[in-house]
Amino acid sequence: MAITDILSAKDIESALSSCQADDSFNYKSFFSTVGLSSKTPDQIKKVFGILDQDKSGFIEEEELQLFLKNFSSSARVLTSAETKAFLAAGDADGDGKIGVEEFQSLVKA
């Protein structure tokens, strides 16, 4: 499954253009612009499955750093500060990774 099966290419392009500069990524505005915030829990779960590159059931810090590349191969990697802030926002149970329920809560925050 491709991410464009769930999200529109136009919305993805718009969301990526809003965070091209280092340290400009804001997960709340990104999820809203890309249209993820308005998706069903099942659709959000499918996007989680795409982001979970190693299929561990969690999005770890390394996968978060490459978050934007899941939307476009030409997108930048997140900075260390952006990655740590993103992880801190989503890691509700403090285990150092984001599970599917945590991701769903983060998207709807």
From TrEMBL:
Molecular-function GO term, any one: calcium ion binding
Positions of Ca(2+) 2 binding: D91, D93, D95, K97, E102
Pfam families documented for this protein: EF-hand_7 (PF13499)
Sites where the protein binds Ca(2+) 1: D52, D54, S56, F58, E63
GO cellular component term of the entry, any: cytoplasm
Family: Belongs to the parvalbumin family.
Alphabetized PANTHER family for the sequence: PARVALBUMIN ALPHA, PARVALBUMIN, THYMIC
Protein name: Parvalbumin
Species name: Tauraco erythrolophus
Lineage: Eukaryota, Metazoa, Chordata, Craniata, Vertebrata
